[in-house]
Amino acid sequence: MTTTESQSCAGYIQLVFFDDTTGETVKLGGAGFLTKADDDAAWANVPTFAGESSFMADRLDANHDIVDDKAVSAETCERLTGKPIQTLIAEGRAALAAELTSYSQRGHNVHA
After folding, report:
1. Domain residue ranges in the chain
2. How far is it, in rounded angstroms, from Cα 48 to Cα 46?
3. pLDDT per residue over 47-68, tens digit each?
4. N or C: which end of the chain has fewer CB within 10 A?
């Protein structure tokens, strides 16, 4: 599962982690789909986790608005991205920290 940003997509799936340690929502990765059929098929293949989970799959439309979501397991995140969950979380935290730093350096007030 990789992000397709260069082309206009019909929809996206984004994996996120709700970090209880920091209180932040950390993006773990995702993918864009060029056709509605591909988007529908990919979403149907993301299994819902029955218990409580800190991991979520968000379904986004072409405008990047969340239109659906489902709880997923860490194992599902690993399977969809091909990376260990520890790596996904570390990379996601680093990207979020860089984004917040960049935002605050532009003179915006950021409360993480």
Report:
1. 11-105
2. 7
3. 999 999 999 999 999 999 999 9
4. C
